Amino acid sequence: MVRFKSRYLLCELCVSDQSSLQLLDDRAVFTGVRGAVCRAHGDYGAALCSVSFAVKYLNADTGVVFLRCRKSHYRILWSALPFITHLENRGQKVPCAFNCLYVGGTIRTCQKFLIRYNIQQLHRMLPHCHNEAERLEVRRAVLNCSLKSLEKEEEEDE
Amino acid sequence: MFTNLEKCPRNLLVCEKSSFLNEKSRHDIHVAKHFFNYKVSILIPECGIIPSFLSSVVNGFSKYYLVRDLPLHKLLEDEFLEKVVKTGSLYALSYKTRIDQDNTFAILPTGQVILSVDKDTYEELGLEGKASQYNHRQPMRYVVTIDMTDKSLAPGGKRYKRVMWALKEKVQLTSDFLLARYSIGGDEEGLLQSCLSQYSCKELRPSVSTQTLRDLLCPSLDPADLRRDARSHDPQQFLEWLGTVTMDMSSNNEATSFVSTYCCPEPQSSMSQALVYTVTGLLLPEDIHSLLKELRRYFDEPRFTSWLSMTVHGFADSPISWGSTEHGFHKGGENFYTFVIFKNQDYWLHMATGANDGCPP
Amino acid sequence: MGEHASYERLVFKNASVYHYMKIDLILESEDKRLNAAHFKQLIISALRDLYGEIGAAFPFDVLKFEEDTLTAVLRVYNSGLVKLWSALTLLGSYHSEPCAVRVTQVSPFLLALSGNSRELELD
Amino acid sequence: MAVFVDLNISHTVDKKRLQNIIETAAHLGYSTVAINHVVDLQQKKQEIGKPKCVSELFDQFPIVQGKSRPIKVLNRLTLVVSEASHFRPTNEFKSYDVVAVFPKTEKLFHAACMSFDVDIICIAVTEKQPFYFKRPPVNGAIDRGVFFEISYVPAIKDSTMRRYTISNSLSLMETCKGKNVIVSSGAEKPLELRGPYDIANLGLLFGLSEGDAKAAVSTNCRAVLLHGETRKTALGIIHTMKKIEPTAERREEEEAPVLKRARTEAV
């Protein structure tokens, strides 16, 4: 049996107001991205992408999104992402931008990257802490959260 | 983005530069080997009416015949072979048959018979041939070449009988044919007609049309510079320009214009008028050769132009292009050549073929 | 043979950067008129439908357009040929009225469009 | 490299329109067309009738453009099946030149590929494919010489259907690798038909290679017609028919073996 090769796009949703991310769900991201692909690449692009296209994971707290599509067509999906200016859910508009962080062949490699990326971010953000108390607070939070909930780390960054 | 959609069929363009006065010049061979010509168009810059010596050559072009429902074996019977095929050069091409769909037949003046047939016919025919070059997954088309001048195929012989049996008894290959015969004497008026009297036979003459174009831009040509390294336009650009002229398109657009951005290649000069003279029909290489000779004489008198061009289009559905090189039809079936003749008897020759074609000689 | 041009031979494979298409637009009602600009706009909108904004941005030229017969000659880069052709094939309506584009000939050489032996009619 | 064929011209009772479509097809260069009679077995009281004789359509069939032959018109039956029990081969099948089936469920698709005595399996183009194409049934169909059909007219008419057409055919191509595919129109109006070279180019969008795309309107259709012939006859070797003469008793007539089985194999 031949395996259909996929590509996973690890994206970060950039929003001005972090809380607005809570309004989004998989469905909203799915339709938003599909609409963007259709605008940028037309019916043909949309048809190509729709083969095995899925939102594999959405973290409404950190804005991390995993998109999956066929390996042969991931560039179509990727090139449409910059044209997204907002997503819509239940009539509410969320202005946002997609920032593609990593493209991987499996969810696993994407996850590894995400951990590395978040650690990097943590190191970058830590010096910005205003006083020792804040710093300790961050450290405590990081130690508190188990490895399972990686996404918490990023939340602490803010 | 869509890489699978960005490929397109290959095409070939062979450009030659030489002089008619060069002893080794092969222009006559190229002309003689392009057997089935459909259209000749001549472009003479700065010329209003066609010189009489040219039109008289064209008027002397051989007649050709359209014969309906002619069985192929008729053309290979001893009598016909002796009388027609072996005494002059016979050109025969099946008419209204498409090389990518139907069985197509051609008889070359060299005495070769070429059958390009589909798989079913090939299997029933039982003649030896080889698979066409342009097959996909499984061969669906075969090319059978029979050389009638071969000694082993002499009428009455075993192999000859087998060929006739295959074409007569096994499968009656019948088609409409375009026939023409070139003979130096020209004494056998109606020889073809008399031989094929039992079939509906229509005599046809090549049709001629003239068109005068006014005020156009034209690229400046330098005979020594085929490749155009020094200048900015190359053979493709010149051929493209020639195309726009023969199809009467505007060639002075702005780079920003919406509809078309085509511009005449630089360096350019303007031309007050030009003559496009076209002949259509089954045109024989011999006739084209004599036309070419006359065109060279055009510069015997002082003229305003330093060059003129002649384009010869081949039949898109002919089974061969040059010599016995296989020809096919993928999307366009193009096979043509263009002579650019200069005042000093230098020439450029551009030969082009499309996707399912062998390379021009 | 110094005075004559010396022999030179060049072979180009896929030399032409363009492909040329000869097409016919067929409208259901024959009283509609359109000019070259409308015609190009129609093709661009067909491209946009099938290939989106990015697809609609690739350049092509309408080298010739005859308003009475609605025939045209298009020039397109090789890489855009399949896209343009398929967009023309899937073009089904003009101003919500059925229409069709018939492609008569496609060639990498413009000259070849002026001598199509499939147009030969001797009857 | 064979003649161009369109195996799906929608049947209408409007004779004038049908004539119009066939004339257009001839003008576009199709040498053979098949008139498609659709029978939806879901609805009750749907009977497979005998098709009208095609010779009633024209006194003189239109000449194919660029050729001196008239166009050949055939009859085709398409059964829309959603339950396996509905599919029952009847004698009426024999009066059609080509029989197609449009399976609505995965189970039926499997059955159609592996066992149904049909020539064509239709692929959904107006809706999202409700199941995945699995390799075993698709390969089974290819081995049996059954072809998959994609109709392009819905893609001309509507943007959403265009998306379904393309994505469904792409997922089919992932499994069948471009083998045993035919592309046909499904036209109801003359203006919906497209020329054979246009379709060969359109095939690239459906995930076919250039050669496969041209085969999809020519050689593969020829294979379908031959396959249809083998169904009507005993593997294309023996052809039985009733003698209409009232006095003569029923006799089996043996025709020359026009077909060899090998020829119907997929190309």
Automatic annotation (TrEMBL), chain A:
The keyword Transferase does not apply. Signal peptide: none annotated. One of its GO terms (cellular component) is multimeric ribonuclease P complex. Keywords: Nucleus, rRNA processing, tRNA processing. It is found in: Nucleus, Nucleolus. One of its GO terms (biological process) is rRNA processing. Pfam families: RNase_P_Rpp14. Its main location: nucleus. GO terms for molecular function: ribonuclease P RNA binding. Component of ribonuclease P, a protein complex that generates mature tRNA molecules by cleaving their 5'-ends. Also a component of the MRP ribonuclease complex, which cleaves pre-rRNA sequences. Belongs to the eukaryotic/archaeal RNase P protein component 2 family. Component of nuclear RNase P and RNase MRP ribonucleoproteins. RNase P consists of a catalytic RNA moiety and 10 different protein chains; POP1, POP4, POP5, POP7, RPP14, RPP21, RPP25, RPP30, RPP38 and RPP40. Within the RNase P complex, POP1, POP7 and RPP25 form the 'finger' subcomplex, POP5, RPP14, RPP40 and homodimeric RPP30 form the 'palm' subcomplex, and RPP21, POP4 and RPP38 form the 'wrist' subcomplex. All subunits of the RNase P complex interact with the catalytic RNA. Several subunits of RNase P are also part of the RNase MRP complex. This is Ribonuclease P/MRP protein subunit POP5.
From TrEMBL, chain B:
One of its GO terms (molecular function) is ribonuclease MRP activity. GO terms for cellular component: multimeric ribonuclease P complex; ribonuclease MRP complex. This is Uncharacterized protein. GO terms for biological process: endonucleolytic cleavage in ITS1 to separate SSU-rRNA from 5.8S rRNA and LSU-rRNA from tricistronic rRNA transcript (SSU-rRNA, 5.8S rRNA, LSU-rRNA); tRNA 5'-leader removal. PANTHER family: RIBONUCLEASE P PROTEIN SUBUNIT P40 (PTHR15396). InterPro entries: RNase_P_Rpp40. It comes from Aldrovandia affinis. Pfam families: Ribonuc_P_40.
TrEMBL record, chain C:
This is Uncharacterized protein. GO terms for molecular function: ribonuclease P RNA binding. One of its GO terms (biological process) is tRNA 5'-leader removal. GO terms for cellular component: multimeric ribonuclease P complex; nucleolus. Belongs to the eukaryotic/archaeal RNase P protein component 2 family. Keywords: tRNA processing. Gene3D superfamilies: Ribonuclease P, Pop5 subunit. It comes from Aldrovandia affinis. The keyword tRNA processing applies.
UniProtKB/TrEMBL annotation, chain D:
Pfam families: RNase_P_p30. One of its GO terms (cellular component) is nucleolar ribonuclease P complex. One of its GO terms (molecular function) is RNA binding. The lineage of its organism: Eukaryota, Metazoa, Chordata, Craniata, Vertebrata. Belongs to the eukaryotic/archaeal RNase P protein component 3 family. GO terms for biological process: rRNA processing; translation; tRNA processing. Residues 248-267 are annotated as: Disordered. Transmembrane segments: none annotated. It is found in: Nucleus, Nucleolus. It comes from Aldrovandia affinis. PANTHER family: RIBONUCLEASE P PROTEIN SUBUNIT P30 (PTHR13031:SF0), RIBONUCLEASE P SUBUNIT P30 (PTHR13031). Component of nuclear RNase P and RNase MRP ribonucleoproteins. RNase P consists of a catalytic RNA moiety and about 10 protein subunits; POP1, POP4, POP5, POP7, RPP14, RPP21, RPP25, RPP30, RPP38 and RPP40. Within the RNase P complex, POP1, POP7 and RPP25 form the 'finger' subcomplex, POP5, RPP14, RPP40 and homodimeric RPP30 form the 'palm' subcomplex, and RPP21, POP4 and RPP38 form the 'wrist' subcomplex. All subunits of the RNase P complex interact with the catalytic RNA. Several subunits of RNase P are also part of the RNase MRP complex. Component of ribonuclease P, a ribonucleoprotein complex that generates mature tRNA molecules by cleaving their 5'-ends. Also a component of the MRP ribonuclease complex, which cleaves pre-rRNA sequences. SUPFAM superfamilies: PHP domain-like. Signal peptide: none annotated. It comes from the Eukaryota. Keywords: Acetylation, Nucleus, Phosphoprotein, rRNA processing, tRNA processing. Its main location: nucleus. This is Ribonuclease P protein subunit p30.
